[in-house]
Amino acid sequence: MTQRLNVFAVAPKALEPLQQVAINLEAVGLETRLTELVKIRASQINGCANCLHMHTADARKAGESEERIYLLDAWRESSMYTPRERAALAWTEALTKISETHAPDADYEALAAQFSEVEIVHLTILVGAINVWNRIAIGLRFQNPSDRRLAAAA
Description:
The chain is an all-alpha fold. It has helices at residues 7-10, 12-26, 32-46, 49-61, 66-71, 83-96, 98-101, 105-114, 117-139, 145-153.
């Protein structure tokens, strides 16, 4: 796979609002490990190798275990995730697959039982932001660092 263009070189100003969203979300108090699980799960659904590479590394740095990262795609079948994480992951899936799910009331009710209204807003923006990043990275064919190393070696 070849990168189509380098958006950071071509239009860095276009990315500034998205980068600011990420900075703002870091400051609102959602747990780092939770936010990384959300980013990983959305990136799994969307098939974004670059984002998966980045956010699994970030999750490890935040203290997330390898086992929970590996099992994330099957979180519903594992008891390793807290009720709060499960609500966030269900919401992530519902919003990432919005054309199929239309954000079911049951997912929102589970979310509302675990998160404050302010946290729900922040989590919803987080899910939207990672989906935008996934679309940019997939559409423009961002290469993850491992792919870049392999290409350079070839």
